[in-house]
Please model this.
Amino acid sequence: MSDEPQPITMAHQMRLMLLSSRDKTIERLQSHQVGQSVLLHVEPAFRSHGGAQGLFDSILQGILKDLTEHLDPRDRVEAGRTAVVTVDQSTVEAASLTKADGTHLIRISDAQISMLGLLRDLTLLWARGQSRFRMLSFGRRIWAAHRGTLAEADDAIAAGAASIRYNILSQRIEGQSSQVSAPIRLASNVRVDDGVAAGLALMFLVAHELGHIVLGHTRRAEEATTAIRHRFEFAADAFGLDLLVRTLGDQGSATLAAHSAILGLSAIAVGSDPLFIRSPETHPGTADRIARIAERPGVDTTVLTALGHGITAMVRMGTDLQAPLDRLCWDRLFSSPDFDTTLNAPSTYKLVRGYDMWLDADPRRTMRFLRDMQQDRNTPIDDDLALVDFDSLIRGIEHFVSDGPSAALHIWGVRRVDRLVNYEHALSFHELVTAITNAAAFAALPADQRDRPARIDSNLFLRRTIAMTLTSTIANSLERSEP
Model:
């Protein structure tokens, strides 16, 4: 064997470029008691792997190795040319690509891993709340699912729905994920009645991306139409599920594999679908993908229903953004020791919960809100209110009713209006919120106040509050029209 160093592939070069020290994440955890306890649990693993990046990469590389061993021999070549990396990224992502030299890279974001951890924790919390004896509880849930008498909701589901909603709305406001529960915990012993380990859901996502590579989808990505992309996703789901079953080593594990896949797809749905006003048309509907997985041979749908009831109810309530959550859900989230919102600033929590109450905003309600703020004086935020051109905001809502969103955005002094109302392009809520927050209707702070953090935070909080209200009011009119 030659002692000459092997050439660095393009995929490996890209992987090195994506590595991160994750200093901000660590600093955030160190600043809070809950975060310190998390670090106390994982720091030995960090040290043994050279840091957070090393730990997560070793997990992913181990998953890729296990999956590769169960591939058909003809497919192992492509898997052997594949690198995998965790990306210090605040948006949910699991993606694969092929470089010009024929090597491949799979990227999994931190936010994706955290979301899997959150959903697994919610599943466990719901399951453990049903009975002191989880195996007995599991049996009861199977029987209840068979009879169609599973409980519609309980305190754990209510709090879980609010934690999912909190995460979604935080990303809409901040453009980044918001950690609500502890990070992923990879269990060494997987039992069905424990809920599905996040590690298996992560394994399915890697297997799915490996399917895109092995099936040649990544080589045809640029030329694929929307219909072809949708076929690619269904094919990669089927490939990933089959590979996960083979890796688990037992055809009887099809139900566990299916639930792992559903957990992974739910994480993607929670972390991406609701963040858009107009979603990129790269993936078919999550419900359709889950339905196909549930119908696979060997999957016990009764058990799947029992296992998935809690998580399904939480996700449905949390992601149904047509109307605000019941106040009970938010109260359960805030008061429950099983959830943590304290890693986030109290003002963010208030803004998120307040924004949820505006999901069903209408123009008349919004104009009343703006007029009340315009007339509100002798408050701690008088200086911030004085920097808002309420007349133009109200006039914009009036013109929105008669002339549509473009008229309102122009009156508010929003830049790049043509891009925001172009129905051929995806549009995220955060993009629109940011555009309105930076509109001319909001005057800049005086020069002598721009270096005062408290003053900056107060002004930004007010602008975001108003921008979220305006976004909620006009968002539906900016959605892509159905064919």
User: Anything to note?
Assistant: The beta strands are 82-87, 94-98, 104-109, 276-278, 427-428. The mean pLDDT is 83. The chain has three domains: 10-109, 111-346, 361-478.
